[in-house]
Specification:
The complex is a heterodimer of chains A (347) and B (350).
Chain A (H helix, E strand, L loop, with lengths): L11 H4 L3 H24 L7 H8 L6 H34 L11 H16 L4 H24 L7 H23 L3 H4 L3 H4 L8 H4 L3 H13 L1 H7 L3 H6 L4 H23 L5 H13 L3 H26 L7 H19 L6
Helix pairs in contact in A: 2-4, 2-16, 3-4, 4-11, 4-14, 4-15, 4-16, 5-6, 5-7, 5-14, 6-7, 6-14, 11-14, 12-14, 12-16, 15-16, 16-17
Chain B lengths: L7 H39 L7 H8 L7 H34 L11 H15 L5 H22 L6 H25 L5 H8 L8 H20 L1 H7 L3 H6 L4 H23 L5 H13 L6 H21 L7 H23 L4
Classes of the chains: A mainly alpha (347), B mainly alpha (350).
């Protein structure tokens, strides 16, 4: 079991990586994120110049170019928020389940949030942003518990592949239910695509604000669980031996990640594979210490989502592609590579 | 010890009796299924916004002109009903072939992404290259075969482990689904009903041009596959045992894969990957037939019955007309999860 993550190998290179190396990488990731954010504001179906961007950032929206930039700013902010939430949630989930295939999308948790939002809209008239987020988080939590329970049944407990299979099956199931609920309701069906393919288009600061408290709480809980996750990585017995309350640590961390991906799904729809790809890449950069891995995953997740959003705008000019399509195209091969790396024993 | 076992002679008799009983049960089940398929098919021709009595329907099918019914039944309901039967048979056959060959109920073409491959190719062909009919079917079949080879190749690592193949198939399927979304978005014609056809399957607006390739494929490929039924059953015992029984393992496997993929792809090109039909047909058939003989024919009939009934339910049971794939998806999803729970509990192949 322990060999599932490349964690407990006393790999000298990872263990003694000097802090300065990590700091350097931190600066690099920050710079990349900043660059991508600028690109996200500058690139779109309408070309804009630097002067337009500056004046738009100053609050002016008189020319069409400036108006375009003004529209792209909240979108970029949303991509950064959602990307960091998903990257962080993925890293926490991989730590909690000690499962390299864990991802809010693969485990069906995003779809749970999506279905809850759709059901709330269709049956309970929950149209306000805040109620929508509450419902989404509740749906995400239910889906998480359900998938974990299904995957944990039987011999060997929740092995990576059992969990992934349970998650994929649950996703397929929830997708059908979303369609069945949304289709009869013309008012909802119009934007039903956004409940099945995640996207960040059409964001405004107004519909962005309600989600901030949820993301902030989720962020704090997740980052605080870093120490607990480090102990869990040693295996439950050893962690308990070291004085860690295993169930509590696991529950708290799971709560943080569910909050994050529930809130992210409420504003952006279900986005697959960001939470899967990002932590793996970050582990290559900064090693397996969750105190570093978690913030890195957040930053790298933001970068990946902003980049995917920009790509979506470039390849489908003059219209645009939802970011969820791009992340699936990029992430699925990665998923396959991780599956292939698993040893047959786990299969 | 010996007291626990019956005398050898009685044993042989019991086995023989058992075999006869199971064979006759199988015959009964297959007959009942076939009758049900025919009855449901005729019902789909009769009911709708206007009801036509059996006599009218039969006359239309025989080629007579009946005012009103000739158009509604002959042009609208007949192609739809025929495609429902054909697609159901194709999905049932293709699904149970994969499940038998890979010895895993989860390994049906719709779970492991082969249907999505055919669907993605069909969407690309129709939306981007404005193809129709045979051309769409051809590229759908080519793409489905390509996806099958790709998944098998990716899952091969000193032997193919069932679960690895399924997970890789799920990953490939996720990619292909986003290709479908990509094409539909890029074409700037995101029409939800049309999108649903390629994402979950739909029989709405079926025309004879779409039905024909699938029908021909069924008539050509199904007999080939049925001819391999005995060999396929032998493969379930394992490759070595099958070879010892005189089965040419590789040849059987190749024929079975190509025909099964072909059946699924032709049906998908016509009506989209109707969710979970190829996944459900085999296990349901196994339940009602019991462990005797090949499952190919019962599974095909169960597939046809599933599509027909789901289409009826989708059209008339609710205020909204649901595409058939949404109905089968909602029906199939709980079963899929039940199957995973059961397999996990038994500590089976997972």
């Amino acid at each position: 079991m322990t060999s599932v993550l490349p964690v407990p190998t006393p790999d000298a290179a990872t263990r003694r990586r000097p802090g300065s190396g990590r700091l350097l990488w931190l600066l690099v990731v920050l710079a990349v994120l900043a660059l991508l954010s600028v690109a996200s504001v500058a690139i779109g179906s309408r070309g804009v110049g630097w002067s337009d961007i500056w004046s738009a950032l100053g609050g002016s929206s008189e020319t069409i170019e400036e108006a375009a930039v003004t529209k792209r700013i909240p979108r970029t902010v949303l991509a950064v928020l959602v990307g960091s939430a998903l990257g962080l949630a993925g890293a926490v989930m991989q730590g909690v389940t000690r499962n390299p295939l864990a991802d809010p999308g693969v485990l069906g948790i995003n779809m749970g949030a999506s279905l809850a939002v759709v059901a709330g809209l269709a049956w309970f008239g929950l149209f306000t942003a805040t109620s929508r987020i509450f419902v989404a988080v509740a749906g995400a939590a239910l889906a998480a518990v359900f998938v974990y329970a299904v995957g944990a049944l039987g011999r060997g407990g929740p092995t990576p592949l059992k969990l992934a299979l349970a998650g994929a099956a649950t996703s397929a199931a929830l997708t059908s239910f979303i369609t069945a609920i949304a289709l009869p309701r013309g008012d909802i069906a119009a934007n039903v695509q956004s409940f099945q393919v995640g996207g960040v288009g059409g964001a405004t600061f107004d519909n962005l604000t309600p989600v901030l408290p949820f993301l902030a709480v989720g962020l704090v809980i997740s980052l605080l669980s870093a120490r607990g996750l480090n102990s869990l990585a040693l295996g439950d017995e050893l962690a308990a031996g070291l004085g860690e309350r295993v169930a509590v640590a696991r529950g708290v961390a799971a709560l943080g990640s569910v909050l994050l991906c529930g809130a992210a799904t409420a504003v952006a729809g279900p986005i697959w594979f960001v939470g899967l790809v990002v932590p793996h890449l970050c582990r290559l950069l900064v090693g397996v210490d969750h105190r570093w891995l978690l913030p890195f995953s957040a930053l790298a997740g933001a970068s990946l989502l902003v980049a995917s959003d920009v790509i979506g705008r470039i390849v489908a000019r003059p219209s645009e592609l939802d970011v969820g399509i791009i992340t699936a195209l990029v992430g699925a091969p990665f998923f396959i590579a991780v599956v292939r790396r698993q040893r047959v024993r786990e299969l | 010890m010996t007291a626990l076992l019956p005398a050898p002679a009685a044993d042989v008799d019991a086995v023989a009796r058992n075999r006869v009983r199971r064979a006759s049960r199988r015959r009964v089940v297959v007959t009942v299924l076939a009758v049900l398929v025919v009855v449901t098919f005729v019902t789909t021709l009769m009911v709708g916004r206007t009801f036509y009595p059996l006599g009218d329907v039969v006359r239309v099918v025989l080629g007579e002109r009946v005012p009103g019914a000739s158009f509604t039944v002959g042009r609208l309901r007949l192609p739809r009903g025929v495609l429902a039967v054909v697609a159901g048979l194709c999905f049932g056959l293709g699904g149970v072939t994969f499940q038998t060959m890979l010895r895993n109920p989860l390994a049906s073409p719709d779970v492991i992404g082969i249907s999505s491959g055919a669907s993605a190719a069909a969407v690309v062909g129709i939306v981007i290259f404005s193809l129709d009919g045979t051309a769409v079917s051809t590229i759908a079949v080519a793409a489905a075969l390509g996806v099958a080879v790709l998944i098998y190749g990716l899952a091969f690592k000193g032997g193919v482990a069932g679960t690895r193949l399924i997970l890789i198939g799920i990953g490939v399927g996720a990619m292909l689904t986003s290709v479908i979304n990509y094409v539909l978005t890029k074409a700037g014609q995101w029409d939800y009903q049309e999108a649903l056809r390629w994402l979950t399957g739909s029989l709405n607006g079926t025309t004879w041009t779409a039905v024909l390739p699938a029908l021909v494929a069924l008539l050509v490929l199904a007999p080939v596959l049925l001819g391999q039924a005995k060999n396929l059953s032998a493969l379930q015992l394992g490759d070595d045992a099958a070879a010892a029984l005189g089965v040419r393992v590789e040849r059987t496997r190749l024929i079975a894969i190509v025909t099964a993929v072909g059946l699924v792809a032709f049906a998908t090109a016509a009506c989209g990957p109707i969710a979970f039909v190829s996944f459900l047909a085999g296990p349901i058939a196994a339940r009602i037939v019991g462990p005797h003989g090949s499952l190919l024919v019962p599974a095909a009939l169960v597939g046809a019955l599933l599509v027909l009934v789901a289409d009826l339910v989708g059209q008339f049971a609710f205020d909204t007309r649901f595409p058939v794939g949404v109905v089968t998806g909602v029906l199939g999803a709980p079963y899929l999860i039940y199957l995973i729970i059961r397999t996990n509990r038994a500590g089976g192949s997972l």
